[in-house]
Amino acid sequence: MAAVAWAQSGREISRAAKAAEDVEAECMEATGVATQFPLPPAVDPVAFLQPYTDKNSDSNVKIHFAHGTTTLAFKFQGGVIVAVDSRATAGSYIASQTVKKVIEINPYLLGTMAGGAADCSYWERNLAKECRLYELRNGERISVAAASKTLGNIVYSYKGMGLSMGTMICGWDKKGPGLWYVDSDGTRTTNDMYSVGSG
Description:
By secondary structure, the chain is an alpha+beta fold. The chain has helices at residues 2-31, 45-49, 117-138, 144-156; strands at 71-76, 79-84, 88-90, 93-96, 102-106, 109-112, 166-173, 176-183, 188-190, 193-196. The protein contains 4 helices and 10 strands. The two termini are 33 Å apart.
């Protein structure tokens, strides 16, 4: 049985490798530039990892996957890439599979949601209002750093009162792309990449 499973995995890896080569060739032909990210050697990642998860009692290697919000952001020379999941849970109950966890603050600023959906949504909409007021008062758009500082100051005043937020404020301003992490304690840091959430 193990030999059959290995042979099947070997065929999957061969198919995945061929598919990766085809994608690489198409990218090279279209852009003249090789892709920078190697593709995983599996057609179906769930099936490929199944023998190693905690649901398979025969495996010595147990991988325990966390199920929760995952938000990712990467800053690069041309901007910021943001990726989020779309699941909302209430304890062990899946409340929705179609939640928008990227919130537009203005056309140049985005916020992400991880933690309490109501907290993140409310305070980022509040930040949108503050950013618009800044623009009206000063005649120019707020910077990414100043927007994150505004949010950090607001939520810091509610520290210890039960807020649950882990958010990224990202966007483009005079200095180029910006990416900041702000949480419900008022912590505020900047970096080129972040992964926020329990997933």
